[in-house]
Amino acid sequence: MPGIRKSDPAYRRATLAMLAVGLATFNGLYCTQALLPTFTSVFNVTPTTASLTISAATGTMALMIVPASVLSERFGRGRMLILSLLLATGFGLAIPFLNSMTWIIVFRGLQGACFAGAPAVAMTWLSEEIDKRDLAGAMGLYIAGNSLGGLSGRLIPAGIMELASWRWAMGLNAMFALIMALSVWVLLPAQQNFRPRRIELRTELQVMLGHWMNRRLAALFLIAMLALGTSVSIYNYIGFRMIELFGLSEGLVGLLFLMYLSGTWSSARAGNFVRRWGQGPTIVGCATLMLVTIPLFVATNLTLILLGLFVFTAAFFALHSVASGWVGLTATSHRAETSSMYLFCYYVGSSLFGWLSGYFFHHSWTALLIWLADLAALIVMLSAWLWRGTPQPN
Question: Which residue ranges does the record assign to the Major facilitator superfamily (MFS) profile domain (predicted)?
Fold first, then answer.
């Protein structure tokens, strides 16, 4: 059947549902990031240990994305989306009642594993159901929902922390995520182009590994890993820097995540950037902006730091939008598995580099920035190779 066009009534329902998917998933996934300084003091742990509340969630999500994608081939994308979100928000509602950092990390891991079903199939749902002529715009709106979800997952707990404890912050935030999950259940149109197929584990693994034989796909997978790892590392530890440097309260530090609005803007317009300049120049430009803004974080001037964070965040989300759309266009078959491998690498980057960067931060803020600049330089090189060394997809 033909895909959903922008002029169809189902397009509005689909894009609103995918917006809610992003809000629920990334609100829940990163809801502890603004609370890391609180966790270090309340539970008497190091920043690196506190950051495991992020890395545990993104790590188990990465591990479960491929199984969730495989199951969606048999049971359907929409069903996987809804079940995933409801289970994950259920674990989120339990976290405020926990009394140790160990159990919080365990439940965050369980929550991330359940969330895996949403990003594992959301892009595939869009690729299958939305007309190719409108896919870039719909994908951009989904990524915009991701950035808004990430923003709400930081701002809601940070704002509540000004008035109440971290338990209230986590609990009320989980209620918001649950409302978004229920909205997906109500709004998401039934799939018209999905055909269930028999699951064969050996075949699925061969397909997954086979994607790495496509050099363009391999480059996109590595870009995803490095890009999210760099972004998460900055947001994990910049709050500690702001508290130390400017003496800000944790609630005020949470306002730093308003910078995610720049990512909402840039990801929603990524389709326009691609139509004007093409995938290659756009992704190289975004990667370069990420690299050149990192030195601004050395500054002791708050305005320069905020400017750097604004531009960095906009560049990161636009890059992710372009790369994820390019993956869908490059893969001519087994798109669910392709998207899953991209997202596996994406969240492995968040989990691995977000945790590993803590050791550089423990040494010094400058050491962390040098490490992150190295990662960003690799993104620029991979993006340049992708642009100049391979043909551009139509």
Answer: 10-391
